[in-house]
Write a structure and sequence with these properties.
This protein is mainly alpha-helical. Helix content is 68%, strand content 6%.
Length: 145
């Protein structure tokens, strides 16, 4: 189960990195950066393949910077990390594949950011129940009475 968890996180991080680069270069005037294959930007495909090679090092770097291994209670920082992965994956999907959804707003806040935040919260809870059921059961407060 650990390998599946790691694989999902690595693929989503590679997706985030490739979406970031693709959305940055989408606004340039260079037309060769905007080529698409079946509505998928060619730059995204290339960057996704490259990102798959460096994603494990990126994850390890974040763990070292945040001192993840030396923490007693790893749950809060784990939840923030996975929530961030889900949030930026959804934002990347909109910025690269569905730019027409970026124009809608909710009182000045882009609506796709609001939905991405709500979905990331729910996905983090579901993900924890699937991959860390023992951790989520141990952290639940006991009601006596």
């Amino acid at each position: 189960m650990y390998k599946v968890n790691q694989l999902i996180q690595n693929i989503l991080l590679a997706f985030i990195m490739s979406c970031s680069i693709t959305s940055i270069f989408r606004a340039t005037t260079y037309s060769w950066l905007k080529f698409e294959v079946i509505h998928i930007p060619l730059l995204f495909i290339v960057m996704f393949c490259i990102s798959l090679f460096v994603v494990e090092d990126v994850r390890d770097s974040f763990k070292k910077v945040l001192k993840f291994e030396s923490r007693k209670d790893k749950r809060p920082i784990w939840q923030v990390g996975v929530g961030m992965i889900f949030y930026f994956t959804q934002v990347g999907i909109v910025e690269v594949f569905a730019r027409s959804l970026m124009v809608h707003d909710l009182g000045g806040m882009p609506l796709y950011l609001v939905f991405a935040f709500m979905n990331a919260f729910l996905l983090t809870v579901i993900y924890e129940e699937i991959f860390y059921p023992k951790l989520s059961k141990n952290q639940t407060p006991k009601i006596h009475g």
